[in-house]
Amino acid sequence: MFSIFSSSFLIGMIIDKDMKILITGGCGFIGSNIAIFLKNKINNLTIHSLDNLSRNSSKINLNRLKKQKIKNFNLNISNKSKINSLIKYDFIIDCCAEAAVEASKLESERVFFTNLVGTFNILEKAKKDKSKIIFLSTSRVYSIKRILSKAKDINKKKI
To answer: Quick check: helix, strand or coil at residue 133?
Structure first.
């Protein structure tokens, strides 16, 4: 598995000093660690985080970012006008998502707007600003074969 933290050579190839970088979900576990890693590895970067701080751990990570002088925009990614009002970024790293399957069952509308509409808004901003973009997905990943097998098991139980 590729690790961004052990690959500063690759990071140096795609991210130059003096770039402006936006990290969505920047106060999450992955986003905050990427932000701090980049800040410590490459001089003269402007790194901003975008996170609505909806999780308790986000507030802890926000304090870590503040110590590194990384600004966070407390915005909901589904708010297109506010996303478009942000400055132009050279690079966007999209770490923002509601990954928990259970949350999608309980709050499907919120998850829809975060994961689908929010991703669309970031892609549109990247296109408008001609920003490079990396999309990260850290949710549980299952093979199609395994999903179909589970679906068949569930259907058999319903009969």
So the answer is: strand
